[in-house]
Amino acid sequence: MICSVRAAASSSLSVVAAAPAKASLTPMPRFSVPLRAPFSSQAPSSCLSSHRPLYLATRQGFGSEKPRACEADRNAAVPFPEEDELSVASQRIKIGFYFATWWALNVVFNIYNKKVLNAFPYPWLTSTLSLAAGSLIMLASWASRVARPPKTDLDFWKSLAPVALAHTIGHVAATISMSKVAVSFTHIIKSGEPAFSVLVSRFLLGESFPMPVYLSLIPIIGGCALSALTELNFNLTGFMGAMVSNLAFVFRNIFSKKGMSGKSVSGMNYYACLSMLSLLILTPFAIAVEGPKMWAAGWQKAISQIGPHFVWWVVAQNV
After folding, report:
1. CB 239 within 8 A of CB 189
2. pTM of this structure
3. Structural contact between residues 56 and 67, judged by C-beta atoms closer than 8 angstroms
4. Residues 257-288 pLDDT 10s
5. Could you tell me the CA-to-CA distances from 317 to 131, 201, 271 in Å, in that order?
6. What single DSSP character describes residue 36?
7. What is the CB neighbour count within 10 angstroms for residue 111?
8. How open is the CA angle 304-128-260, to the nearest 5 degrees?
9. C-beta of residue 199 within 8 angstroms of C-beta of residue 218
10. C-alpha–C-alpha distance, residues 27 and 120, integer Å
11. Contacts (Cβ under 8 Å, ≥6 apart) of 196
12. pLDDT, tens digit (0-9, with 9 covering 90-100), for 183-234
């Protein structure tokens, strides 16, 4: 039923009702709705405007549904700027918290990673344990429903394989570098990753960048070169490990961009799947390069020199 409400001279609303018809609307009897209360000298406030038509509408076929009233030009939803601002502010706080947590845990990892590698110089095993710890944490999160497990298929894992291979190489190379040189030197060399990314994208993929991007590489490359020349405890293996890690992570990003676009798995679940597949790739190589005999001998030596605290170092490094 559709009703048209008009303002009358006697401060009342004159309502003309019309029944639905196929070609036209048939007028119905006229009735009035007073706006003033019987014993009030002032007209009550009304949320309806007398200068705009009012529509009372109901869906056909649902006779039990109550009619709903709305003005003709006020169908759009009313925005609430304060709620939007609060939502944006809370999102920024959350992202800031993630960055702070990431930075703090990275500091803890670097400290204990170096302490473990000094007492137990087996970077292939420590790299494997790091991936294993991350995989176990995510498996526990999925099992306890803290995180929703992803829905994957064979095509997803095929697309993820080159990404995981590059991730494995970069992870092991960085750990080898940290075992040979100071952590600060490794991170200085690894800060040159943007330069590797631009150069690889330019010469291998044919992508072009604005001139300011190329100019920004000069201080990055110059700083890394100056650090390498002035490093007191320079080690070629450590330097090459950091460089290989940069190159591997660049190809990881390229493979991820090319092969994983459009996949439904993203965010934390994507990184969890990447860690699990990298663990499967790395484990046989770690056994072949170092092996259980070397690990057992090195573990006994570290325990005898450091004591039981060494176990907690390993736990802190991996978790």
Report:
1. yes
2. 0.69
3. yes
4. 887 777 778 788 999 999 999 999 999 999 99
5. 11, 33, 18
6. S
7. 14
8. 160
9. no
10. 94
11. 246, 247, 250
12. 888 888 888 888 888 988 888 888 888 999 989 989 988 888 888 888 778 8
